[in-house]
Amino acid sequence: MKRFILAFTLAAGQPFAANAAEFNQVQPDKSAITFGYQQMGVKMDGRFKTFAAKLNFDPARPTDAKATFDVDLASIDTGAPEGDEEVAGKPWFDTKAFPTAQFVSGSVKALGGNRYEVAGKLTIKGRTQDVVVPATFTAQGTTGVFDGSFTIRRGDFSIGEGAWAKFDIVANDVLVKFSITATSK
Amino acid sequence: MTDTYTPTAKGLHWLMTILIFGLLVLGFYMHDLPLSPQKLQLYSWHKWAGVTAFLLVWLRLFWRITHRPPALPAGMPKLIQFAAHAGHFMLYALMIAIPLSGWLMSSAKGFQTVWFGVLPIPDLFDKNKELGELLALVHKSLNLLFVAVIVGHVGAALKHHIIDKDDILTRMLPGNRIPRRQ
Fold first, then answer.
1. Which CATH architecture has domain B7-172?
2. Which of A29, A77, A130, B106 is most buried as measured by Cβ atoms within 10 A of its Cβ?
Protein backbone atom coordinates (compact mmCIF):
# COMPACT_ATOMS: atom_id res chain seq x y z
CA MET A 1 0.00 0.00 0.00
CA LYS A 2 2.78 2.40 0.99
CA ARG A 3 4.56 1.65 -2.22
CA PHE A 4 1.38 2.29 -4.16
CA ILE A 5 0.91 5.75 -2.62
CA LEU A 6 4.53 6.60 -3.31
CA ALA A 7 4.19 5.47 -6.91
CA PHE A 8 1.00 7.49 -7.30
CA THR A 9 2.67 10.58 -5.89
CA LEU A 10 5.58 10.25 -8.26
CA ALA A 11 3.24 9.64 -11.19
CA ALA A 12 1.35 12.84 -10.38
CA GLY A 13 4.70 14.57 -10.72
CA GLN A 14 4.48 16.58 -7.54
CA PRO A 15 3.76 16.09 -3.85
CA PHE A 16 0.18 16.48 -2.62
CA ALA A 17 1.20 19.36 -0.39
CA ALA A 18 2.28 21.45 -3.35
CA ASN A 19 -0.93 20.68 -5.18
CA ALA A 20 -2.92 22.30 -2.42
CA ALA A 21 -0.98 25.56 -2.74
CA GLU A 22 -1.11 25.77 -6.49
CA PHE A 23 -3.01 28.78 -7.81
CA ASN A 24 -4.73 27.68 -10.99
CA GLN A 25 -8.33 28.89 -11.01
CA VAL A 26 -8.35 32.23 -12.80
CA GLN A 27 -11.17 34.54 -11.73
CA PRO A 28 -12.10 36.50 -14.88
CA ASP A 29 -14.32 38.99 -13.05
CA LYS A 30 -11.42 39.95 -10.80
CA SER A 31 -8.85 40.08 -13.57
CA ALA A 32 -8.05 42.78 -16.07
CA ILE A 33 -5.81 43.39 -19.06
CA THR A 34 -5.39 47.06 -19.88
CA PHE A 35 -3.07 49.09 -22.07
CA GLY A 36 -1.75 52.62 -22.30
CA TYR A 37 -0.12 54.62 -25.08
CA GLN A 38 0.52 58.18 -26.15
CA GLN A 39 -1.34 60.07 -28.86
CA MET A 40 0.39 63.36 -29.72
CA GLY A 41 1.63 63.61 -26.17
CA VAL A 42 -1.74 62.69 -24.68
CA LYS A 43 -1.82 59.62 -22.44
CA MET A 44 -4.56 57.27 -23.57
CA ASP A 45 -5.68 53.98 -22.12
CA GLY A 46 -8.02 51.12 -22.80
CA ARG A 47 -8.73 47.51 -21.95
CA PHE A 48 -9.69 44.12 -23.30
CA LYS A 49 -13.00 42.94 -21.92
CA THR A 50 -12.65 39.27 -22.81
CA PHE A 51 -9.71 36.95 -22.42
CA ALA A 52 -9.11 33.36 -21.43
CA ALA A 53 -6.29 32.61 -19.03
CA LYS A 54 -4.85 29.35 -17.85
CA LEU A 55 -2.18 29.36 -15.24
CA ASN A 56 -0.50 27.13 -12.74
CA PHE A 57 1.60 28.75 -10.08
CA ASP A 58 2.97 27.23 -6.91
CA PRO A 59 4.87 29.80 -4.83
CA ALA A 60 7.05 26.95 -3.55
CA ARG A 61 8.07 26.03 -7.09
CA PRO A 62 7.82 29.22 -9.15
CA THR A 63 10.10 28.02 -11.93
CA ASP A 64 7.54 25.33 -12.80
CA ALA A 65 4.85 27.94 -13.34
CA LYS A 66 2.96 28.02 -16.61
CA ALA A 67 0.63 30.57 -18.07
CA THR A 68 -1.32 30.94 -21.30
CA PHE A 69 -3.43 33.94 -22.23
CA ASP A 70 -5.77 34.24 -25.17
CA VAL A 71 -7.06 37.76 -25.58
CA ASP A 72 -10.15 38.40 -27.68
CA LEU A 73 -8.97 41.42 -29.65
CA ALA A 74 -12.48 42.35 -30.78
CA SER A 75 -13.37 42.91 -27.12
CA ILE A 76 -11.16 46.00 -27.03
CA ASP A 77 -12.43 49.12 -25.33
CA THR A 78 -10.46 52.14 -26.53
CA GLY A 79 -12.81 54.55 -24.81
CA ALA A 80 -14.53 55.66 -28.02
CA PRO A 81 -16.79 53.56 -30.29
CA GLU A 82 -15.11 54.87 -33.45
CA GLY A 83 -11.76 53.85 -31.96
CA ASP A 84 -13.01 50.31 -31.23
CA GLU A 85 -14.26 50.01 -34.80
CA GLU A 86 -11.05 51.39 -36.25
CA VAL A 87 -8.63 49.07 -34.45
CA ALA A 88 -10.61 45.97 -35.43
CA GLY A 89 -9.85 46.80 -39.07
CA LYS A 90 -7.10 45.55 -41.33
CA PRO A 91 -4.46 48.21 -40.60
CA TRP A 92 -4.66 47.51 -36.87
CA PHE A 93 -5.54 44.08 -35.40
CA ASP A 94 -7.39 42.70 -38.43
CA THR A 95 -9.59 40.76 -36.03
CA LYS A 96 -11.35 38.84 -38.82
CA ALA A 97 -8.09 37.13 -39.78
CA PHE A 98 -6.45 37.24 -36.33
CA PRO A 99 -9.15 37.24 -33.66
CA THR A 100 -6.90 36.51 -30.69
CA ALA A 101 -3.58 37.59 -29.27
CA GLN A 102 -1.76 34.86 -27.40
CA PHE A 103 0.88 34.81 -24.71
CA VAL A 104 2.52 31.52 -23.77
CA SER A 105 4.97 31.47 -20.92
CA GLY A 106 8.37 29.86 -21.17
CA SER A 107 10.83 30.04 -18.32
CA VAL A 108 10.03 31.72 -15.03
CA LYS A 109 12.68 33.32 -12.82
CA ALA A 110 12.19 34.19 -9.16
CA LEU A 111 13.75 37.60 -8.50
CA GLY A 112 13.34 37.47 -4.74
CA GLY A 113 10.54 38.67 -2.55
CA ASN A 114 7.30 38.45 -4.46
CA ARG A 115 8.86 39.45 -7.77
CA TYR A 116 9.13 37.18 -10.76
CA GLU A 117 10.17 37.43 -14.36
CA VAL A 118 8.28 35.45 -16.97
CA ALA A 119 9.82 34.96 -20.39
CA GLY A 120 7.37 34.00 -23.08
CA LYS A 121 6.14 34.34 -26.59
CA LEU A 122 3.57 36.90 -27.59
CA THR A 123 1.70 36.41 -30.83
CA ILE A 124 -0.40 39.20 -32.31
CA LYS A 125 -1.61 39.42 -35.89
CA GLY A 126 0.37 36.33 -36.87
CA ARG A 127 3.67 37.76 -35.64
CA THR A 128 5.47 36.25 -32.67
CA GLN A 129 7.91 38.09 -30.44
CA ASP A 130 9.85 37.07 -27.34
CA VAL A 131 8.80 39.14 -24.38
CA VAL A 132 9.97 39.31 -20.77
CA VAL A 133 7.21 40.12 -18.34
CA PRO A 134 7.96 41.21 -14.78
CA ALA A 135 5.22 40.30 -12.33
CA THR A 136 4.51 40.36 -8.65
CA PHE A 137 2.46 37.81 -6.80
CA THR A 138 0.47 38.63 -3.69
CA ALA A 139 -1.44 35.87 -1.94
CA GLN A 140 -4.10 36.11 0.69
CA GLY A 141 -5.19 32.65 1.78
CA THR A 142 -6.37 30.78 -1.26
CA THR A 143 -6.53 33.88 -3.47
CA GLY A 144 -3.50 35.20 -5.28
CA VAL A 145 -3.08 38.26 -7.49
CA PHE A 146 -0.53 38.62 -10.25
CA ASP A 147 0.28 42.19 -11.22
CA GLY A 148 2.66 43.46 -13.83
CA SER A 149 3.26 45.42 -16.95
CA PHE A 150 5.52 45.33 -19.98
CA THR A 151 6.05 47.47 -23.03
CA ILE A 152 5.63 46.27 -26.58
CA ARG A 153 6.23 48.16 -29.78
CA ARG A 154 3.15 48.08 -31.96
CA GLY A 155 5.39 48.30 -35.03
CA ASP A 156 6.86 44.87 -34.18
CA PHE A 157 3.43 43.35 -34.71
CA SER A 158 2.32 45.56 -37.61
CA ILE A 159 -0.43 47.04 -35.44
CA GLY A 160 -1.35 50.23 -37.25
CA GLU A 161 -0.25 49.96 -40.86
CA GLY A 162 -0.49 52.33 -43.80
CA ALA A 163 -1.45 55.84 -42.74
CA TRP A 164 -0.97 54.85 -39.08
CA ALA A 165 2.49 53.34 -39.55
CA LYS A 166 4.30 56.52 -38.54
CA PHE A 167 4.61 57.01 -34.82
CA ASP A 168 4.18 60.80 -34.74
CA ILE A 169 0.45 60.61 -34.00
CA VAL A 170 0.07 57.27 -32.23
CA ALA A 171 3.27 56.30 -30.42
CA ASN A 172 5.07 53.01 -31.05
CA ASP A 173 5.33 52.01 -27.39
CA VAL A 174 2.30 50.39 -25.83
CA LEU A 175 2.31 49.55 -22.14
CA VAL A 176 0.37 46.37 -21.42
CA LYS A 177 -0.78 46.03 -17.83
CA PHE A 178 -2.41 43.07 -16.18
CA SER A 179 -3.89 42.11 -12.87
CA ILE A 180 -4.90 38.48 -12.70
CA THR A 181 -6.64 36.92 -9.73
CA ALA A 182 -6.40 33.16 -9.30
CA THR A 183 -7.47 30.89 -6.49
CA SER A 184 -6.14 27.56 -5.37
CA LYS A 185 -8.58 24.71 -4.92
CA MET B 1 -10.87 110.98 -25.17
CA THR B 2 -8.73 108.81 -27.41
CA ASP B 3 -10.03 108.25 -30.90
CA THR B 4 -8.32 105.00 -31.62
CA TYR B 5 -7.38 101.74 -29.95
CA THR B 6 -3.86 101.11 -28.66
CA PRO B 7 -1.61 99.11 -30.98
CA THR B 8 -1.70 96.28 -28.40
CA ALA B 9 -5.50 96.21 -28.41
CA LYS B 10 -5.52 96.20 -32.21
CA GLY B 11 -2.88 93.48 -32.36
CA LEU B 12 -4.78 91.27 -29.93
CA HIS B 13 -8.07 91.90 -31.79
CA TRP B 14 -6.67 90.83 -35.17
CA LEU B 15 -4.56 88.00 -33.80
CA MET B 16 -7.67 86.54 -32.17
CA THR B 17 -9.70 87.20 -35.33
CA ILE B 18 -7.35 84.92 -37.26
CA LEU B 19 -7.14 82.37 -34.45
CA ILE B 20 -10.91 82.23 -33.89
CA PHE B 21 -11.70 82.08 -37.61
CA GLY B 22 -9.29 79.13 -37.91
CA LEU B 23 -10.72 77.46 -34.81
CA LEU B 24 -14.31 77.78 -36.06
CA VAL B 25 -13.57 76.51 -39.57
CA LEU B 26 -11.45 73.65 -38.21
CA GLY B 27 -14.00 72.77 -35.54
CA PHE B 28 -16.95 72.56 -37.91
CA TYR B 29 -14.85 70.70 -40.50
CA MET B 30 -13.11 68.10 -38.35
CA HIS B 31 -15.86 66.66 -36.22
CA ASP B 32 -17.48 64.70 -39.07
CA LEU B 33 -14.25 63.27 -40.48
CA PRO B 34 -13.72 59.51 -40.36
CA LEU B 35 -11.03 58.48 -37.88
CA SER B 36 -7.57 58.93 -39.38
CA PRO B 37 -4.17 60.21 -38.27
CA GLN B 38 -5.12 63.55 -39.84
CA LYS B 39 -8.26 63.74 -37.73
CA LEU B 40 -6.31 63.12 -34.53
CA GLN B 41 -3.77 65.72 -35.59
CA LEU B 42 -6.47 68.29 -36.42
CA TYR B 43 -8.15 67.67 -33.05
CA SER B 44 -4.87 68.25 -31.25
CA TRP B 45 -4.23 71.45 -33.20
CA HIS B 46 -7.76 72.66 -32.50
CA LYS B 47 -7.28 72.05 -28.78
CA TRP B 48 -3.87 73.74 -28.72
CA ALA B 49 -5.25 76.79 -30.55
CA GLY B 50 -8.29 76.80 -28.25
CA VAL B 51 -6.13 76.87 -25.12
CA THR B 52 -4.06 79.66 -26.70
CA ALA B 53 -7.20 81.68 -27.47
CA PHE B 54 -8.42 81.14 -23.90
CA LEU B 55 -5.17 82.57 -22.50
CA LEU B 56 -5.15 85.48 -24.97
CA VAL B 57 -8.68 86.52 -24.06
CA TRP B 58 -7.63 87.08 -20.45
CA LEU B 59 -4.70 89.17 -21.62
CA ARG B 60 -7.13 91.10 -23.79
CA LEU B 61 -9.56 91.64 -20.93
CA PHE B 62 -6.71 92.83 -18.72
CA TRP B 63 -5.65 95.26 -21.45
CA ARG B 64 -9.20 96.49 -21.97
CA ILE B 65 -9.71 97.12 -18.26
CA THR B 66 -6.41 98.99 -17.93
CA HIS B 67 -6.72 100.89 -21.26
CA ARG B 68 -10.08 102.49 -21.81
CA PRO B 69 -11.35 101.88 -25.34
CA PRO B 70 -12.47 104.86 -27.45
CA ALA B 71 -15.99 106.04 -26.81
CA LEU B 72 -19.00 105.23 -28.94
CA PRO B 73 -19.98 107.95 -31.42
CA ALA B 74 -21.95 110.83 -29.93
CA GLY B 75 -25.61 110.88 -30.78
CA MET B 76 -25.90 107.08 -30.90
CA PRO B 77 -29.37 106.07 -29.63
CA LYS B 78 -29.38 104.58 -26.11
CA LEU B 79 -30.84 101.32 -27.32
CA ILE B 80 -28.11 100.89 -29.96
CA GLN B 81 -25.45 101.77 -27.37
CA PHE B 82 -26.85 99.08 -25.14
CA ALA B 83 -26.83 96.61 -28.04
CA ALA B 84 -23.18 97.47 -28.77
CA HIS B 85 -22.17 96.87 -25.14
CA ALA B 86 -24.23 93.69 -24.91
CA GLY B 87 -22.68 92.42 -28.16
CA HIS B 88 -19.14 92.99 -26.93
CA PHE B 89 -19.99 91.44 -23.56
CA MET B 90 -21.31 88.37 -25.41
CA LEU B 91 -18.13 88.13 -27.50
CA TYR B 92 -15.93 88.12 -24.40
CA ALA B 93 -18.22 85.75 -22.49
CA LEU B 94 -18.20 83.30 -25.40
CA MET B 95 -14.43 83.58 -25.89
CA ILE B 96 -14.15 82.34 -22.28
CA ALA B 97 -17.04 79.86 -22.21
CA ILE B 98 -16.29 78.10 -25.52
CA PRO B 99 -12.75 76.91 -24.72
CA LEU B 100 -13.91 75.94 -21.22
CA SER B 101 -16.71 73.81 -22.69
CA GLY B 102 -14.24 72.25 -25.14
CA TRP B 103 -11.78 71.39 -22.40
CA LEU B 104 -14.52 69.92 -20.17
CA MET B 105 -15.92 67.95 -23.13
CA SER B 106 -12.46 66.51 -23.81
CA SER B 107 -12.13 65.59 -20.14
CA ALA B 108 -15.48 63.83 -20.05
CA LYS B 109 -14.77 62.03 -23.30
CA GLY B 110 -11.50 60.74 -21.88
CA PHE B 111 -9.13 62.68 -24.14
CA GLN B 112 -6.97 64.88 -21.98
CA THR B 113 -5.83 68.21 -23.42
CA VAL B 114 -2.05 68.49 -23.56
CA TRP B 115 -1.06 71.97 -24.74
CA PHE B 116 1.28 71.62 -27.72
CA GLY B 117 1.72 67.99 -26.70
CA VAL B 118 3.84 69.13 -23.77
CA LEU B 119 1.78 70.74 -21.02
CA PRO B 120 -1.00 68.51 -19.69
CA ILE B 121 -4.08 70.41 -18.58
CA PRO B 122 -5.73 68.59 -15.68
CA ASP B 123 -8.99 66.79 -16.35
CA LEU B 124 -11.79 68.18 -14.23
CA PHE B 125 -14.10 65.26 -14.94
CA ASP B 126 -13.57 61.53 -15.10
CA LYS B 127 -14.57 59.75 -18.27
CA ASN B 128 -18.35 59.89 -18.56
CA LYS B 129 -20.09 59.17 -21.87
CA GLU B 130 -23.38 60.98 -21.16
CA LEU B 131 -21.62 64.05 -19.78
CA GLY B 132 -19.28 64.02 -22.77
CA GLU B 133 -22.19 64.05 -25.20
CA LEU B 134 -23.95 66.78 -23.26
CA LEU B 135 -20.83 68.93 -23.27
CA ALA B 136 -20.35 68.31 -27.00
CA LEU B 137 -23.84 69.73 -27.52
CA VAL B 138 -23.00 72.70 -25.26
CA HIS B 139 -19.74 73.32 -27.17
CA LYS B 140 -21.55 73.18 -30.50
CA SER B 141 -24.47 75.38 -29.38
CA LEU B 142 -22.15 78.03 -27.92
CA ASN B 143 -20.23 78.07 -31.19
CA LEU B 144 -23.39 78.52 -33.26
CA LEU B 145 -24.30 81.43 -30.98
CA PHE B 146 -20.74 82.74 -31.34
CA VAL B 147 -21.01 82.67 -35.14
CA ALA B 148 -24.30 84.61 -34.91
CA VAL B 149 -22.76 87.25 -32.61
CA ILE B 150 -19.68 87.53 -34.86
CA VAL B 151 -21.93 88.07 -37.88
CA GLY B 152 -23.64 90.85 -35.91
CA HIS B 153 -20.24 92.30 -34.91
CA VAL B 154 -18.93 92.36 -38.49
CA GLY B 155 -22.27 93.58 -39.82
CA ALA B 156 -22.34 96.46 -37.32
CA ALA B 157 -18.75 97.46 -38.16
CA LEU B 158 -19.55 97.47 -41.89
CA LYS B 159 -22.76 99.41 -41.31
CA HIS B 160 -20.78 102.08 -39.45
CA HIS B 161 -18.22 102.23 -42.24
CA ILE B 162 -20.49 102.11 -45.28
CA ILE B 163 -23.74 103.68 -44.14
CA ASP B 164 -22.79 105.94 -41.21
CA LYS B 165 -19.35 106.68 -42.72
CA ASP B 166 -17.81 107.08 -39.24
CA ASP B 167 -14.49 105.84 -37.83
CA ILE B 168 -15.79 102.85 -35.84
CA LEU B 169 -14.20 100.35 -38.22
CA THR B 170 -11.10 102.29 -39.23
CA ARG B 171 -10.04 102.97 -35.62
CA MET B 172 -9.50 99.23 -35.18
CA LEU B 173 -7.41 98.92 -38.34
CA PRO B 174 -3.61 98.69 -38.07
CA GLY B 175 -1.51 101.82 -38.44
CA ASN B 176 -2.05 105.38 -37.26
CA ARG B 177 -4.87 106.49 -39.45
CA ILE B 178 -6.30 109.95 -39.28
CA PRO B 179 -9.77 109.34 -37.95
CA ARG B 180 -12.35 110.31 -40.47
CA ARG B 181 -15.11 112.56 -39.28
CA GLN B 182 -18.73 112.62 -40.20
1. Up-down Bundle (1.20)
2. B106
